[in-house]
Amino acid sequence: MPSRRAAVVAPTLDASPYAPDAQHPVRVRARRLAASTRIAPHSHPWAQVAYSSAGVLRVTAGQHTYIVPPSRAVWIPPGIEHVVTVVEDAELRTLYLHVPRGRAGPAPLGAAVGATADWARCRVLEVSPLLRELVDQLAELPRPAQAEREGLCAALAQDELLRAQPVALGVGLPADKRLRALCEAVLDDPARHATLPGWAAESGASVRTVARLFRQELGTTFAAWRQQVLLAKALSMAARKRPMAHIAAELGYASASAFSAMVRRSVGVSPSRFFAAA
User: Fold this and answer.
1) Alpha carbon distance 60, 63 (integer Å)
2) What are the pLDDT digits (tens) for 90-126?
3) In terms of pTM, does the model score above 0.70?
4) What is the Rg, in whole angstroms, of the alpha carbon atoms belonging to the chain?
């Protein structure tokens, strides 16, 4: 069966009506995008928070890629080039935030909650029910918006972002072009080969060369890196309420127990506890 060709969507440009400024510090864009849609690489002078209210996204920003289920969002600082790929049909919600000079992250409401966080780096955040509702409200406000209501919702949304818990999700990506292509292939279909020799043969490089590049570029082994990819994929499937046996089979494990053993070795707890905590 031929693979589904990705539809490339142009990014939102600076001149768009969604560009935030001091008077409108938070803009929200809501879009329904089909699976395999890819928003071309771009950057902009404002910060961005990307998440889907339904469906799964893959966000590549800087030297990391993030597989993002609906309960998570990716914070992208100003000026960082990023690509958004829709893994399955998604209701994309994008927050564009005005970040004045001298401030790294969202504006605090009252006490500077989260002021010590490293907002200059990409990070994965929890999406609380309150933040989800605020985003939907901002997306539905008419233009020109109701200024008072927009200001209140924008201020509370930024404060909610500051209070959002960070989540340790993210897979490192190399600078080396040949290794980057191999890593992208693993991200697209991690179960196609279970071991490094299969991936190395597909890339046209020797096992020794690929193993050396992983150590040099990412400071880890291929097996450990692929394990993080599998865990991220498992999280996205668990968020969609897939049964454990289905997740195990889709990721190439012979049984649910074999998959459970991998999770326990990786994170020290059972899959049910890992998915609940993450």
Assistant:
1) 8
2) 899 999 999 887 676 787 665 444 444 678 889 889 8
3) yes
4) 20
Helix H, strand E, coil C: the string for the chain is CCCCCCCEECCCCCCCCCCCCCCCCEEEEEEEECCCCEEEEECCCCEEEEEECCCCEEEEECCEEEEECCCEEEEECCCCCEEEEECCCEEEEEEEECCCCCCCCCCCCCCCCCCCCCCCCCEEEECCHHHHHHHHHHHHCCCCCCHHHHHHHHHHHHHHHHHCCEECCCEECCCCHHHHHHHHHHHHCCCCCCCHHHHHHHHCCCHHHHHHHHHHHHCCCHHHHHHHHHHHHHHHHHHCCCCHHHHHHHCCCCCHHHHHHHHHHHHCCCHHHHHHHC
> For domain 175-277, which architecture applies?
Orthogonal Bundle (1.10)
Residue 26 has pLDDT above 70, yes or no: yes
Distance between CA atoms of residues 132 and 60, nearest Å: 22
- Say which CATH architecture domain 8-167 belongs to: Sandwich (2.60)
CB 254 within 8 A of CB 260: no
| 10-28 mean pLDDT | 76
The pLDDT, as a whole number, for residue 89 is 86
